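INTERNAL TRANSFER SHEET
From: sequence group
To: structure group
Subject: Chromosome segregation ATPase

Please process the attached sequence and return the structure record in the designated field. Keep the field labels unchanged so the import script can parse them.
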Amino acid sequence: MTITQDQVNAAADAICAEGNKPTVLDVRKRLKAGSMSEIWRFFQVWQSIQATSDEPEFSVSGELQRTLEEFITRQVAAVKTQLSQDIDVLRQTNTELMAEIDQLTQQLTQQTAELNSARTIKDEVTGRFDQLNAELKRAQQEIEIEKESATHSRMELVKVQLKLESVPRLEADLDQLYKNLEQERVAKMNAEHDAKTLAAKLEIETAARKKAESDLLEQIRGKNEQPA
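Return from structure group:
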């Protein structure tokens, strides 16, 4: 999420109002949004404003001159402590910034790979398009050849039709051939019908013969079973 200078200023001022000295890490924890680089940039602006508006004014009276050396020593020690804390914060901030840089580098690497893949696909599509365009041209040429061949075939058909018209006996021969085929078909049907009739008669006679044989066997069996 994008953050603004006012949001960073408000977060830093709120931490100051709680009696604490804000750091860029504290501001980031409070905002829970934005990247470390954005927060760091806005936080530096806030620090520069605080430095110009909160410049300490020191006035040393004659009574305090005796303790000036001790005061300076304490101030130096406090500054050293604060600088040490600032260095620690800067180190941690730098670590997070480097992590963000690594993440952005990985994203850039991935996007570069995707771009290269897209370029490869584009080249493949372009090659396929060129191939299809060449095939289309060949197909158009083949169509023209087929048109010429069809024209030639129609001319040959006209010639054949003219030859057929000059031979009317062929139709008569065909009619006679159809009649002969019809007669043969009728004869075949009659023969098949006669064959079926004979087969039915043969089946009836076979059944009658089997029945007569069965009756005869029954009579013989009955005679054999009678007492002598």
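Handover comment: The first helix runs from residue 5 to 17. The mean pLDDT is 80.
Transfer complete.
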